[in-house]
Write the C-alpha cells for this entry.
Amino acid sequence: MDNIFQKNEILTNLESLNREIKNCKKCRLSATRSNAICGEGNINSRLFLIAQAPGETEDRMGRMFLGPTGKIIDELFGAARINRNDIYMTNLIKCMLPGYRKPLPDETEICGKYLDEEIRIIKPDILVPLGNLAARYVFRRYHGINNLSEAGIGRLFYSNGLKIYPLRHPSSLLYNPQIKADMIKQYTKMAVFQKECKWYPVCPMKYFFEQGKLDKKWIELYCKGDWLNCVRYQMEENFQYHPDNMLPDGSIDKRL
Ligand code: SF4
C-alpha cells in the first residue's frame, strides 16, 4: 500500500515538474526550440541516465534519444541487454542547443535546477552522466569535485548517499568509432548495477555493516554496485577460501 502511495506521489510530482518544463521560458533556448524534452522511462529503475541536451530529431519529435544518437544508444543497450524502457533517462538541458553549441553557464545553472528536482523526486540509486558536460555538472553538484579525469570514465563513485557512474556520450561513437569495444564494455556494466550481489544476504560484509563495523561505501560500491568486480564474489564463485575479514577489494581488515 505504501509503495503504491509513494509511486503515485512520485508520478504526481513528476507530472507537475514536466508541465513546468514543457512551458518553460526561463532562458533564451525557449525561443529556438520546438519542444522542451522531459525525462522518460522507469521511475523505479536504479539507473538514472543524464544526457547533455536534445538534438534536432528529439526537438522535432518531442522524445529522448531518437535519430543517429538514438540508434547508437539502442545498439549499446542491445549489447548490454538493457531495455531502454527499464531505465530512466533525462537531459541536463531540456531544450535543443542551436547548432549543437555548448550550453552557456547561465543556461546550465537555470536548467540544471530541473534536473536536481527530478533527482529529488525520483531518488535514484545511480546517476549515469553521459558525456563531459553532464558529468561536470553532476560531479560538481553531487560529489564536490570540479574536474573528472579520463580515468574516471566507467568507474563507480560513491558519496553523500549517491552513486555516480560517468560514461561517454553515445554520440562520441559518431566521431570516434574505434572506442566502440571499450564503450560496450562500460555500458554492459550497467546491467550488473541493476541488481545487488546474489551473495549479499549471507555475506559477512552485510553482517559487519549492520553491526556498524564497516563503512557503507563498501556495500554501495560493491554489494549494491559493481559486485562482479568484488574479490570476495569472484573467490566465492570459484570455490576458493577467503577469510571473513577480507574486504571486497581483496585487502584484509584486521579490525573486523
Ligand atoms: S562483499 Fe562481495 S561477495 Fe559479499 S555481498 Fe558484497 S559483492 Fe557480494
Remarks:
- The chain has two domains: 2-193, 196-256.
- Residues 197, 199-200, 203, 205, 222-223, 227, 230, 232-233, 236, 248 surround iron/sulfur cluster (CB under 6 Å).
- The radius of gyration is 20 Å.
- The mean pLDDT is 93.
